[in-house]
């Protein structure tokens, strides 16, 4: 049972390309490939049993979730399959399963819940530790290190770049690390001399946005957190974490003052600005599953703000308004640096001509234009809606004179709403992107020069990006999530995230289509079709290259960037911090217990079929 799936294809692939090395695996100290079932270094059933006992029975051997839809699989269940199919596209499903990921391709499409498709489960981990304590994590890391087993860390499985699943691996599932302690009157990090003023939260790295927002709201507090309800602290904070509140308060990672983590050597450490400073810096922005497995984060909280929200739509029903629509979008986005400095943040969508309008299904005659869901922090209830409308006034009057709306058949709609707390805002506007598809993300950060220096170039960029295979595959998401709070945060040198976050305003993300009136992040492609997959790769590379012309050196947000490892991906994701990050990686993880891609210091290994082997 233990060895029943996955190992044969891997062995075959390795025999084809690394067979001279395989024979030396048992004798050499430095094995050439990570162990897989059937190789001499793979642990015996008795070893797995002892591991399970040391974990008080928390070792799982989960079947692939899609197996319930496949006759012949041990867990086939004709009654359960329709429920799974209904859940597959929901963001709320995948985090409850030990191995499921939100985006199918990262388990290599090896057991989709669709009858008629293959189901081997070969892309999923073989064993999973359902950790609830740092001790469980430690036992898992030590076991993987000792037995040369490929290790992965899964939290919720949201990852856009495929780091939370791998074949022939032991996975440490940190979803149930949910400790919680609120510090209402300051916090003193271990070994630091002074108590930091303010309010803090110590939470398990499996804690998820919606739960944190609702629990903190009872204290009238919130954190700088993300737009997805079920995103967890683990992947979010290690990537840097952008938020609608970032332009005011900084990146999420800037708020962390202490981390408890299990190192690749299997030690439980506390890292902060007074001890283990290097690993503290590396974890905050250097990426998940690379330097350590954080079990607890302590982060600063803020009094929950009142928010003014505005849906602003500039729409046209005309099928071809190219000559106006792209210059209009260029003008509006050129105003983002000053709008951000005045307190605006939000998520904008640039819709080329002939694109059905998403999010507002009642607008049946709107094709193309501009849409933004944006907020400002309200100073008092009476400042609404003037606070947010007056920010837009000069922009809209400029549009009136420069692109006469009536003459060009554009309509402007402004729909303001006021929310008494961040939670109230979030309950109405959280991300509802459907899951369960194959997507490949892409995008880059844009700074003020890229947005303001040359509006002709900006307009031409939007026009070039719109030339996708179908209109809906050419929407651009323009996240206005950076600004003064990120640029000047006092902790900005205590985190390792891409330095250009500190000068950028916009995180531009590629949108691949519209589903169920929602935009779909990234380029999608159908399963098990190599041609379609290569085409998606080509589209992402092509669009990334077009955006890059505007800002050759800013790079991209690692958690939502293209995972394609073309030349220079290390610089694209970490900029000048990369060299120090790699030195820290070599120090804390000399034998590469943690490996993922695209991740810091992964250059010494590559995937060979379903195995991980030395380069
Ligand atoms: C619907 C949706 C909305 C999003 N909104 C935002 C947003 O508003 N802002 C933003 O910045 N990002 C956003 N993201 C991106 C999000 O930050 C990343 O997908 C992130 O990696 C998710 O982290 P996770 O722990 O939930 O997921 P996972 O896929 O489980 O983990 C992601 C990565 O982190 C690692 N990891 C997780 N926990 C740990 C841990 N405890 N120790 C070591 N490694 C760990 C995993 O190994 C993996 O490498 C969004 C994503 C989705 C799908
Ligand atoms: C681990 O032990 C528990 C409790 O004894 C058992 O239910 C579970 O199946 C075991 N896991 C594996 C992988 O054998
Ligand atoms: C799909 O997943 C496989 C296996 O994890 C990986 O090798 C491949 O690069 C992925 N492709 C895309 C387009 O995401
Ligand atoms: C994992 O552990 C949590 C916490 O103990 C428990 O609620 C959950 O049922 C476990 N999941 C599985 C699949 O064993
Ligand atoms: C939260 O704010 C409300 C309204 O201002 C107030 O009535 C309540 O006492 C506050 N709660 C806490 C825990 O401070
Ligand atoms: C739309 O108009 C532009 C010029 O304004 C032209 O280049 C383009 O080919 C037209 N597109 C379509 C689909 O008609
Ligand atoms: C369209 O629907 C939204 C709610 O989804 C509503 O707020 C908006 O006012 C409607 N717009 C029009 C033009 O009816
Ligand atoms: C723009 O012009 C329209 C008339 O075409 C007018 O109703 C509207 O008030 C103007 N808006 C601004 C902000 O000037
Ligand atoms: C806008 O609509 C009016 C009336 O339908 C029409 O006369 C005019 O030519 C249109 N403008 C453009 C730019 O198509
Ligand atoms: C602005 O960009 C356009 C298009 O790329 C280019 O032709 C033009 O020379 C640029 N203008 C300046 C002042 O650089
Ligand atoms: C695979 O994708 C290509 C390109 O999108 C498409 O032309 C082809 O029909 C697809 N093949 C199958 C079997 O669906
Ligand atoms: C993904 O599956 C294909 C077969 O469909 C296999 O050739 C490839 O090695 C697998 N990749 C991984 C990373 O498991």
TrEMBL record:
Signal sequence, renumbered to the chain: 1-25
The entry's keywords: FAD, Flavoprotein, Oxidoreductase, Signal
Protein name: FAD-binding PCMH-type domain-containing protein
Matching PROSITE patterns: FAD_PCMH
Similarity annotation: Belongs to the oxygen-dependent FAD-linked oxidoreductase family.
Source species of the chain: Podospora pseudopauciseta
Residues in FAD-binding PCMH-type domain copies: 121-304
InterPro entries found in the cross-reference section: BBE, FAD-bd_PCMH, FAD-bd_PCMH-like_sf, FAD-bd_PCMH_sub2, FAD-linked_Oxidoreductase, Oxid_FAD_bind_N
């Amino acid at each position: 049972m233990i060895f029943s799936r996955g190992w044969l294809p891997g062995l075959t692939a390795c025999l084809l390309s690394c067979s001279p090395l395989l024979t030396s695996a048992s004798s050499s100290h430095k094995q050439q490939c990570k162990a897989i079932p059937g190789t001499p270094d793979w642990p015996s059933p008795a070893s797995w049993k002892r591991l399970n006992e040391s974990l008080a029975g928390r070792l799982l051997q989960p079947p692939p979730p899609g197996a319930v839809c496949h006759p012949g699989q041990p867990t086939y269940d004709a009654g359960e399959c329709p429920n799974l199919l209904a859940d597959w596209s929901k963001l709320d499903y995948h985090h409850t399963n030990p191995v499921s990921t939100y985006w199918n391709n990262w388990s290599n499409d090896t057991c989709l819940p669709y009858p008629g498709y293959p189901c081997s489960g070969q892309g999923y981990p073989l064993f999973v530790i359902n950790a609830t304590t740092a001790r469980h994590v430690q036992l898992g890391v030590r076991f993987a290190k000792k037995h040369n087993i490929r290790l992965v860390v899964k939290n919720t499985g949201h990852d856009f770049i495929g780091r939370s699943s791998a074949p022939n691996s032991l996975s440490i599932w940190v979803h149930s690390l949910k400790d919680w302690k609120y510090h209402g009157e300051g916090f003193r990090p271990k070994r630091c001399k002074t108590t930091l003023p303010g309010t803090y939260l110590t939470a398990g790295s499996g804690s998820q946005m919606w739960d944190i927002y609702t629990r903190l709201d009872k204290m009238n507090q919130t954190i700088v957190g993300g737009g997805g309800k079920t995103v967890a602290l683990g992947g979010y904070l290690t990537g840097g974490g952008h938020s609608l509140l970032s332009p005011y308060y900084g990146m999420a990672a800037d708020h962390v003052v202490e981390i408890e983590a299990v190192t690749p050597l299997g030690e439980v450490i506390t890292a902060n600005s007074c001890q283990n400073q290097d690993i503290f810096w590396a974890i905050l922005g250097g990426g998940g599953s690379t330097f350590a497995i954080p079990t607890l984060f302590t982060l600063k909280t803020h009094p929950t703000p009142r928010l003014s929200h505005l849906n602003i739509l500039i729409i046209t029903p005309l099928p071809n308004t190219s000559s106006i629509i792209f210059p209009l979008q260029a003008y509006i986005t050129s105003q983002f640096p000053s709008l951000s400095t005045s307190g605006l943040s939000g998520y904008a969508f640039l819709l080329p001509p002939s694109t059905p309008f998403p999010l507002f299904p009642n607008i049946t005659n709107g094709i193309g234009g501009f849409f933004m869901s944006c907020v400002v922090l309200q100073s008092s209830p009476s400042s609404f809606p003037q606070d947010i409308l007056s920010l837009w006034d000069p922009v809209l009057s400029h549009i009136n004179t420069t692109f006469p709306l009536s003459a060009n058949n554009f309509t402007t709609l402004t729909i303001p709403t006021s929310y008494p707390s961040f939670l109230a805002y979030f309950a109405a506007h959280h991300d509802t992107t459907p899951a369960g598809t194959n997507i490949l993300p892409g995008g880059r950060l844009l700074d003020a020069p890229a947005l303001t220096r040359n509006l002709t170039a900006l307009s031409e960029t939007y026009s070039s990006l719109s030339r996708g295979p179908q209109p809906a595959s050419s929407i651009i998401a323009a996240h206005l999530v950076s600004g003064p709070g990120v640029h000047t945060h006092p902790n900005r040198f205590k985190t390792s995230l891409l330095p250009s976050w500190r000068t950028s305003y916009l995180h531009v993300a590629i949108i691949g289509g519209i589903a169920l009136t929602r935009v779909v992040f990234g380029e999608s492609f159908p399963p098990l079709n190599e041609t379609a997959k290569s085409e998606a790769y080509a589209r992402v590379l092509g669009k990334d290259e077009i955006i890059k012309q505007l800002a050759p050196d800013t790079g991209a947000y690692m958690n939502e960037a293209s995972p394609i490892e073309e030349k220079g991906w290390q610089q694209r994701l970490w900029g000048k911090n990369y060299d120090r990050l790699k030195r820290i990686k070599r120090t804390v993880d000399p034998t590469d217990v943690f490996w993922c891609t695209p991740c810091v210091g992964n250059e010494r290994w590559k995937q060979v079929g379903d195995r991980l082997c030395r380069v």
